[in-house]
UniProtKB/TrEMBL annotation:
InterPro entries registered for this protein in UniProt: At4g02000-like, DUF4283, Zn_knuckle_CX2CX4HX4C
Name of the protein described by the UniProt record: CCHC-type domain-containing protein
PANTHER family noted in UniProt: GLYCINE-RICH CELL WALL STRUCTURAL PROTEIN 1.8-LIKE, OS09G0268800 PROTEIN
Boundaries of every Zinc knuckle CX2CX4HX4C domain copy: 169-216
Originating species: Quercus lobata (Valley oak)
Residue stretches making up the DUF4283 domain: 32-108
Length: 303
């Protein structure tokens, strides 16, 4: 906005041109929530195709409109704030196998001033030693990649054999493939990183903004680069992960519930109807009988 104002201030304006138009704010359309989007695809954008692609994926409660806003840029105007927030929460999105970068748009800022250089990913951290598979370690590794999105429900960070962390990443830099960590006893360990819902990345340089054939490294090499020199590969794209499928369960101690639940009926009531504490032998026998039941329940959860 400042740039534009500076340009007009240089010119001598006529009296008619200088006349203020006041109170435009009153005529602003209310109840609109706008996301600006930049499509990394190099193909010409057809907004009808874009609407057809996103409508079944987003399943919004209310409608939205799409406006062209420049080369490979669109504005998505939502009637519902929740719908707009859900789209951002479920990033990253792709169209034509290329990332689409979204950001909230306050229309008092010129669109050209928006910098589309971040995307939010679920990053999978593989090869962590089991005793380091916890939320603090995962977030610590995530902080070296970008800005970690702190979650209320941290169980979403459980991936079973790996940890997951949600990170806002600067995509003007190549994606990180790994991290070296120093374990408590001083030994060096490597963890590998995979990115969920990443559709394409340049295998020569690791940027998500272009394909292999458009890479400057490749073009400058005039065909002398061979595939074995590629520093990235399809292995950096995490396979489809279904967070609703349980990969982790925390099991409390059997007697924790009994001790904490004051209303739980004791195991034995004496003849006078007065509650007494069950003898240890009875509790042990009961625990033994329940063991098989617990394992069956655990097995069901992992199915
Ligand atoms: Zn490249």
């Amino acid at each position: 906005m400042e740039d534009i104002n500076r340009e007009w201030n240089k010119l001598t304006l006529s009296e008619r041109e200088e006349k203020d138009i006041d109170h435009l704010g009153k005529q602003k359309t209310e109840r609109e929530y706008i996301l600006a989007a930049k499509f990394l695809s190099r193909r010409v954008l057809n907004i009808e195709n874009v609407s057809r692609a996103f409508r079944p994926l987003w399943r919004t409660q209310k409608g939205f409109r799409i406006r062209k806003a420049g080369e490979h840029k669109l504005l998505f105007v939502f009637d519902s704030k929740d719908d707009a927030e859900n789209v951002v929460m479920c990033e990253p999105w792709s169209f034509d196998n290329h990332l689409v970068l979204f950001q909230g748009y306050d229309d008092d800022i010129p669109l050209n001033n928006l910098k589309f250089n971040t995307a939010t990913f679920w990053v999978q951290i593989h090869n962590l030693p089991v005793r380091y598979m916890n939320y603090e370690v995962a977030e610590g590794i995530g902080e070296t990649l970008g800005t970690v999105v702190k979650l209320e429900d941290k169980t979403k960070m459980e991936g079973g054999s790996f940890m997951r962390v949600r990170v806002v990443i600067d995509i003007s830099q190549p994606l990180c493939r790994c991290r070296k960590i120093i374990l408590s006893e001083g030994s060096v360990w490597w963890v590998s990183l995979k990115y969920e819902r990443l559709r394409s990345i340049c295998y020569w340089c690791g940027l998500v903004s272009h394909e292999n054939k458009d890479c400057e490294l490749w073009i400058k090499s005039k065909g002398t680069l061979t595939v074995d020199k590629q520093q990235f590969g399809p292995w950096i794209c995490a396979p489809q992960f279904n967070p609703s499928r349980k990969t982790f369960v925390e099991v409390r101690g059997y007697y924790d519930d009994i001790e904490e639940n004051k209303e739980m009926k004791p195991l034995i009531t004496n003849g006078d109807g007065v509650d007494v504490v069950a003898p240890a032998a009875v509790r042990d026998a009961d625990a033994g009988m329940q063991q098989g039941f617990w394992w069956q329940r655990l097995a069901l959860m992992f199915q």
